[in-house]
């Protein structure tokens, strides 16, 4: 189980890093904010927390659960740009679901992922690693769901 948690932690950190890299200002895009929603440029604030999670999609939610499991006393801040009615990150496009293959279904999972990513193929070694690690997450998922009586 520790190997799975280490993998999951690394995956979450990578996801958070990649999410942050998308936070740069893009002059070509129009803002969805209305003037009343925008933050005044002279407003100052600061907050110190133990853990800051950027984005509250599936990866952000999993990061928050894992961070709380590691240190229940940690102060965790979750930052989400979307309003509550649009919450869910990119996971909302999949109906807030994800696929976790059983060990015996890894080859089927790999075939499915190859088909989904055909325009931008996933390197075979990464697909092998990812498929096996996903299959190892079932225990963590069941344990987490059981802990909240789901």
Descriptive account of the structure:
The protein is mostly helical. The chain is built from five helices and two strands. The chain has a two-stranded parallel sheet. It is globular.
Would you list the SSEs in sequence order as H and E?
HEHEHHH
The end-to-end span amounts to: 20 Å
Strand content: 5-15%
Task: Give the overall silhouette.
Answer: globular
Our count of helices gives 5
Radius of gyration: 18 Å
Given the helix and strand composition, which structural class is it? mainly alpha
Mean of pLDDT: 78
Write out the strand line-up for the largest beta sheet, numbering strands in chain order.
1-2
For the record, the count of structural domains works out to 2
Q: Helical amount among residues, as a percent range?
A: 40-55%
Report the count of strand segments: 2
Features:
150 residues; mainly alpha; 2 domains; two-stranded parallel ribbon; 5 helices; 2 strands; 44% helix; globular
In short:
44% of the residues lie in helices and 5% in strands.
How do the helices and strands line up, and which of them pair or pack?
Elements: H1 2-21, E1 51-54, H2 58-70, E2 76-79, H3 106-116, H4 124-135, H5 138-147
Parallel strand pairs: 1-2
Helix pairs in contact: 1-2, 3-4
